[in-house]
Amino acid sequence: MVSGAVRRKLAALLVTTWAFATVSCGADEPRNVVAVGADSSAESLVLAQIYAQALARTGTPTAVVRDSANPQADLDAGRIAVLPARDGALLDRWNPAAPARTPEDVVAAVNAALPQGLSASDAADGTDLRSRLLVTEEFAARDTIRTLAALTPRCADLTAGYTELPGFTRTTPAPATIADCAFATTRHYPDPQALGKALRDGEIQVGIVNGPPADAAAGLVVLDDPKYALRAQNILALYRSGHFDRVQLKKLNYVAGELTTEGLTDLVRQVRTGTDPAIAARAWLDAHGL
Questions:
Q1: How far is the C-alpha of 247 from the C-alpha of 60, rounded, in Å?
Q2: How far apart are CA 129 and CA 250, in angstroms?
């Protein structure tokens, strides 16, 4: 069995060299350490830990390579073997003109667009990470606007502001592409608080945030999007094809079956307030029997 000290040394070596190390378990054959990549966001870090620790529970040696400036390039180059990602963001990258918008269609389009040598796990259908559009209660009541479909005919006359939610991964350049909706002008705000103030002060009529708004939506109306004017954004794991056996792949897919928007939002909050991503991930895996 590999000691904790040996594992820590292997992880440090992996981060330093961006290469696969090997570990020996007694008389067993040496096995590659599986590197799971992450950028510097709380979302990416905790998801990388979840997938890495899930694989580790199959007996697979793993390490998380964090704070990458370009995790996708690291996966393409083989410096990491697994990368948590949003399927809609992948489609925006690989085939932005694709008409797919619903979760089922986006998954199919992503699988069709996968570069050679890469595969994808099941998508976590419970993780709805689409951008959210916010309006004031006064605006929603006056114009009877509660959905994106109701807003669409008005877009050309409206000013929208956008910002990034702390802890969540940036995807496509903001503001998000919305079907049949192009705002008259757009403005960037430094944080959700500034965006909310601009809405309440009437500087803008619509606010856009890059995921579940939580506290950012306090006192505001979050427009529903049942027809997917915004492309679906669900979590999945990209991985190097042929790298895993059936047991390992089942474990990656089990994670997808348990992840939810609310659960991930809570994990991001924990990491942003100081919880080690590895500890948050371990508790989540334990709570879900993974």
A1: 10
A2: 23
